[in-house]
Amino acid sequence: MSEINYTHGKIPGEESGIELKHSLCDICSPGMHCGLDVLVKDGKIVKIEGTEGFPINNGKLCTKGASNRQYVYREDRIKTPLKRVGERGEGKFEPISWDEALKTISENLLKVKKEYGADKVAFYSGYSKYYRFMLRRLASVFGTQNYGTESSSCMTSGLMAWLVASGSAMSMNMPNSELIIGWGANGYHSRYPMVRNMQKNMEHGMKVITVDPRITPASQRLADLHLRPHLGTDGALALAIAHVLIENDWVDKEYIDKYVHGFKEYAEYVKQFTPEKGQELTGVPAEDIVKAAELIHSCKGICIPESSTLGHHRNGMQNYRALMSLLIITGNVDVKGGQLPVIHSFMERACGFETYEEEFMEERYPEDAPKAIGADRFPLWYYLRKDMQANALADNVLNEDENSVRALVGFGMNYRMFTSDHRYLEMFKKLDFFADVDLFLTDTAKYADIVLPACTSLERETFMPYNGGKVWYTKKAIEPLGEAKSDPEIISLLAQYMDLDDDLLKAGYKECVRHCLRDLPVSIEEMQASEEPLQLPFIKPYVFGSSLEKGLHTPTGKLELYSEIIAAHPEWGLDPLPTYVPPYNPDSEKYPFRLCAGARIPNALHSRLHDVPWERSLLPEPSVEMSLEDADRLGIELGDDVEIVTDVGALSFKAIPTATVMEGDVFIYHGYREKDINSILNGQNLDPYSGFPAYRSAYCNIRRIS
Ligand SMILES: Nc1nc2c(c(=O)[nH]1)N[C@H]1C(S)=C(S)[C@@H](COP(=O)(O)OP(=O)(O)OC[C@H]3O[C@@H](n4cnc5c(=O)[nH]c(N)nc54)[C@H](O)[C@@H]3O)O[C@H]1N2
Ligand SMILES: Nc1nc2c(c(=O)[nH]1)N[C@H]1C(S)=C(S)[C@@H](COP(=O)(O)OP(=O)(O)OC[C@H]3O[C@@H](n4cnc5c(=O)[nH]c(N)nc54)[C@H](O)[C@@H]3O)O[C@H]1N2
Ligand SMILES: [Mo]
User: Fold this and answer.
1) Do the domain assignments include residue 576?
2) Is 177 found in the same domain as 64?
3) Cβ atoms within 10 Å, residue 336
4) What is the pLDDT of residue 5?
5) How far is the CA of 184 from the centre of ligand 2 (A)?
6) Distance between Cα 576 and ligand 1 center (Å)
C-alpha cells in the first residue's frame, strides 16, 4: 500500500483534533467517483479536498465535488424514518422507529403481493447505482419483473444500439486513436476525465470532430472540425457522411466482407442521403459533411464517446445506430484505437475484470412472472433489458386496470426527471402504498407513506472498481447523520423483514459484494485496509480483433448494420436498418424554436445541487440560453423574463442571449424545483425503440414578459 501525500491544505497538528479520512464523491456517475480527502473534527467534516494521486481526479475536484460538505449537511437531510401524517404531497410527517417503518413497508408489500400478485409491486432506483445489484435481486426474489431505474433515460439508449449491432457494450480505445468524434460531447461540463485524456492525446496528433449545435468549451478547445446539426438530426448527418464514404469507396471492404452483416441493404438506404440532402435535414453545410468524411477516411483508429444526449430524441436510438455504423463500415470496431467490446465488471462499469455481479442479479429473475411494465410498448427495450421502462410507469398506474401497479418502493426517486411529470404526482396519489428512500425530504418523498433516510458515500462503506483493474472498498469518513442507513443495508433489512427466501441478501452488502468478487485475488478486507484503490495483478491487455474472430453475440455473429433481432420481430413495427425520422414538432408555426432541455451545466447534477448554496450561487436563476439574433429580433436582453410555451404548458425563465447558441435553438437546464422544464415537455413523445423521452428535441415558442 503506498502512502497518499496530502499536499493541498495543511493538516493542522495532532492537538487540533483534526483527522484525515479518505473517501469517495458519488455525486456524479460511477466512472467519475473522485477520491476525497475529508478533514474531520469531532465527527464533523470541516474541509474536503481532492486526493492527490487518485486514479480519476489526482488531487482535483470539480465545483460539485468541492461542495460535498454542504451537500452532506443540506438542511433538508432526513435523519429518521418518517411516517406521513398529512395528505400526499403536503409534507407533513412524524418520525418513527426503523422497526415500525420496516414493518409497515413489509406488511404493505406483502399485502399487495397476496391480494393482487407480486407484479403489482414495483421497485425503482434514481440516479444512484451502487446498490442496484441488490435492489434488482430484491425485486426478483420478491417475484416481480417490475424493477426499473433512471437508466430508462440515461446512457442505455446508446448501449441498446451497440447491443443490437454487436451484442456487447463498447468503449473507446482512446490512447491509440487518431480521431475522436465527440458526438454530442462536451466533457468540460459533464465528463472531466475524458477531456483531460483527449487533450493529452491531441499532443500526440489525435484529431477531433465535435458534433454539437452549440459552441462549447469542447468545440473551442478540441475540435479540428465542428459540425452544428439541428437538435435530434444526428442520424441524418451520420447517414450523409456514410453516403460520401460509400460513394468514394472509402469503406473497409475486406473488413465488411468478413465481419459485417447487412452492408448491401444499408448502402442502398444511404443512397438518398446525399450531402445536399444532409444539409437540408440537419443544417450542416454539405461541404462540411464532405470534410468530415475526408477526415474519417484519413484516420485509422476512430472512436466515439458514449453519450446520453443522442438518446434523448424520438429517433434517438436509431440516430445512435447511424453514427456507430460509420465506425462499422470503416473497420473501426474491435481494432486498435477504435471501439472495443467491454466486460462489465460492476455497476455497468467496464474495469477490465470479471465479477459475478450479473449472475447475482439474474439468477433469481422471475422468468414466469408477468412481463415488466413497458414490455408491450417498448418491446426492444424489454428484449434487451428484461426490466421496467420507467417512462411507462405513470401510464400503467393511471390506467387503473388489472395490470396497474399498486405499491412502489423508490430509492432516490425524483419525479422531475420524467417528461409531463405531473403524471407521476397523480400516480403517487393513486398508489395503495408508496415508500421512498432518500437523503433529503424531496418533493417526491413528500408523496410517500413512509420515507427512509439514506446516507451519502462519506457515511458508508462502498465497493468501487476503476478502469484498468483497480478496486477499492471504502471506510466511513463520518458516522451516518442521525439514524440514516446505507441503501444496501435498507435492502437487506427489507429482505429480512419480509423473510424472503434469500440468505445472501439477508446477509448484507459486504457479503453480497464478497460473493460477486469471489474470484478476485484480493479480499474485501485487503481493499478496505488500503487508503487508495488497489491494482489487481492479473489484468491482461485485450487482444484487438479477438471478439470479431470468435464471433459476436448477435444472431449472425457479425456486426449487424441490418439487425436480425429486429427483423425477426415484424410485430414490433421497428426498422432493422438505422433509419432516420426527424424530431416531432406538433405544430411548426406555433412552436418555431428547437428546445434542448438538459445539456449539462457544471454546477448541478439533475435535481441534486440546486439546493446547495455554493452551487446555486454560480447560476442563481433558472435560465434559458438563446441566440443573439433571436434575442435581438424579439427585443430580449440579458436577465429579461421570457416565457417558454410548448404544446403542454408554459414557464418563465431568465434570458441569457449568447453567441454560443444557433438561431432558432434554446437551451434550458432541468431539475429545478421552481422552474421544472420537464413539466412542460410532452410525456408521450418517446422513442419507440428505447422508450426514451425527447428531452433534447422538443419545440416551443418564446416571448418576453418583462
Ligand atoms: N429534461 C431532462 N430531464 C432529464 C435529463 C435531461 O437531460 N433533461 N436527463 C435524464 C438522465 S440522463 C438522468 S440520469 C436522470 C437523472 O435522474 P434522477 O434520478 O433525477 O437524478 P438525481 O436528481 O441526481 O437523483 C435522484 C434522487 O436521488 C437522491 N439520492 C442521491 N444519493 C442517494 C443515495 O445514495 N441513496 C438514495 N436512496 N438516494 C440518493 C437525490 O437526493 C435525488 O432525490 O434524469 C433524466 N431527466
Ligand atoms: N455537471 C454535470 N455533469 C453530468 C451530469 C449533470 O447533470 N451535471 N449528468 C451526468 C449524466 S446522468 C449523464 S447521462 C451525462 C450526460 O452527458 P452527455 O451525454 O455528454 O451530455 P451533455 O453534456 O448534456 O451534452 C453534451 C453536448 O451535447 C449537445 N447536444 C444537445 N443535444 C444535441 C443533439 O441533438 N445533437 C448533438 N450532436 N448534440 C447535442 C449539447 O449542446 C452539449 O454541449 O452527464 C453526466 N455528467
Ligand atoms: Mo444520465
Assistant:
1) no
2) no
3) 16
4) 44
5) 7
6) 32
Cα torsion 36, 37, 41, 44 to 10°: value is: -10
Tell me how far apart the alpha carbons of residues 554 and 557 are, in angstroms, rounded to a whole number: 5
Residue 307: nearest ligand to its CA?
A: 2
CA of 151 to the centre of ligand 1 (A): 10
Cell of 445: 418523498
Atom from ligand 2 closest to the CA of residue 227: 38
Report the separation in Å between the CA atom of 193 and the middle of ligand 1, taken as the mean of its atom positions.
Answer: 21
Query: Which ligand ends up closest to the CA of 460?
Result: 1
Rg (CA), the chain: 25
Per-residue DSSP letter, 677: G
- Neighbouring CB atoms inside 10 A of 37's CB total 24
CATH code, 291: 3.40.228.10
Tell me how many domains the chain contains: 4
Identify the residue whose C-alpha is closest to ligand 1 atom 6: 598
Q: Residue 529 has which C-alpha cell? A: 485496509
Both 366 and 323 in one domain: the answer is: no
Mutate to test the pocket of ligand 2, among 190, 593, 697 (most ligand atoms within 8 A of CB): 190
| Co-location of 51 and 113 in the same domain | no
Last residue of a domain, one of 485, 515, 535: 535
Supply the residue whose CA is at minimum distance from atom 4 of ligand 2.
190
Range of the structural domain that residue 32 is part of = 14-72
Average pLDDT value over all residues in the chain = 95
Question: What are the distances in angstroms from CA 82 to CA 79, 95, 159, 327?
Answer: 9, 4, 38, 52
Closest residue to atom 28 of ligand 2, CA basis: 184
User: What ligand has the least distance to the C-alpha of 220?
Assistant: 2
End-of-domain residue from the set 305, 323, 342: 342
Cα gap 697→685, rounded to integer Å? 10
Report residue 467 as a C-alpha cell. 478502469
Q: Which ligand is nearest to the CA of 29?
A: 2
Give the pLDDT band of residue 8 (cuts 50, 70, 90).
low
Question: From the CA of 455, how far away is ligand 1's center (Å)?
Answer: 16
Q: What is the CATH number of the domain that holds 627?
A: 2.40.40.20
What is the identity of the amino acid at 88?
A: R
Q: How close is the Cα of 605 to the center of ligand 2, in Å?
A: 11
What percent of the chain is predicted at pLDDT more than 70? 98
pLDDT of residue 347: 87
Judged against a pLDDT cut of 60, whether residue 218 lies above it is answered with yes
Closest approach atom of ligand 2 to CA 232? 35
